[in-house]
Amino acid sequence: MLSIITSIIYATVASFLALAIIIFPDQSFEASIRGLNLWLEIVFPSLLPFFIVAELLLAFGVVKFIGVLLDPLMRPLFNVPGAGGVVMGMGLVSGYPSGAKISARLRQENVITKTEAERLVAFTNASNPLFIFGAIAIGFFHDPKIGLLIAVCHYSACILVGLCMRFYKHSEKKEETTTKQERGFRGSTVGRALSALHNHRKSNSEPLGKILGDAVMSSIQTLVMIGGFIILFSVLNKLLFLTGVSSFFATSIEKILKALSQPTELALPLLSGVFEITLGAQMIAQVDHATLLAQVILVSGILAFNGLSIHSQVASILARTDIRFAPYFIGRLLHIFFAVILVSILFKPLYVERTILSPSDIPVSTKTEPENFSTITLEWLHQFGPLITMGTILIACVILLKQKSH
Question: In this structure, is residue 16 part of a structural domain?
Answer without folding.
Answer: no
